[in-house]
Design goal:
about 190 residues; alpha/beta; 3-stranded mixed β-sheet; 6 helices
Length: about 190
């Protein structure tokens, strides 16, 4: 049975992000997957990376729980809104603390590295209106840093991506198209 971890990277926990997450969850649950969800903004941790990998980093309880959830999953899905071409600091801090390559953690008196091989991932990048217009003009990938420097360096493969423009209304054709796609991706789990 597939173990799916959904990372909600929306710092405002907007209705449109929940709309897409619920569609993905419905598809994954219909295929028999077990779903866990973590809202990164709800976690309590120091988002500044200490020691630059020179020392073993002690993880706060919320990061220990997140690391355990990552280790128990086969597939990770990140839903991450992108506003004004940046990733919010707390979300970046989450990646810096758990996903930097060759990092070693201490958790419950065990040293654990972050080689997450054997796991696949999907990044759903939800752009605001200005960023989406820019993306349509030059196809600049807003998720490239997360895909290449975070997930792939931690040995996740494949890492699939989706770029979604702002969902102005949850009832319009564009939103409904993406809901159908999210359900389909949830069923396929890749």
């Amino acid at each position: 049975m597939k173990q799916v971890l959904i990372l909600n990277g929306d710092i405002e926990k907007t209705v449109s992000t929940d709309f897409l997450i619920n569609a993905y969850k419905n598809g994954a649950e219909s295929s028999g997957a077990t779903i866990r969800e973590i809202a990164i903004i709800d976690l309590i941790f120091n988002s500044n990376k200490l020691f630059n990998n020179r020392q073993i980093a002690e993880l706060e309880p919320d990061l220990q729980k997140a690391l355990n959830a990552i280790r128990q999953s086969n597939h990770i899905v990140l839903f991450c809104p992108v506003y004004v071409d940046h990733i919010p600091a707390k979300i970046k801090g989450f990646f810096d603390r758990l996903f930097m390559p060759d990092q070693i953690f201490t958790t419950q008196n065990q040293n654990i590295n972050n080689n997450f091989s054997g796991r696949s991932a999907r990044i759903v990048s939800i752009l605001d209106e200005a960023t989406f217009k820019e993306w349509k003009a030059n196809k600049k990938t807003t998720y490239l840093a997360i895909k290449k420097a975070v997930f792939e360096k931690c040995k996740m493969t494949p890492v699939l991506t989706n770029t979604i423009g702002e969902l102005h209304s949850l009832e319009n054709h564009y939103s409904q198209k993406w809901v159908a796609k999210m359900e389909k991706f949830g069923v396929q789990l890749i």
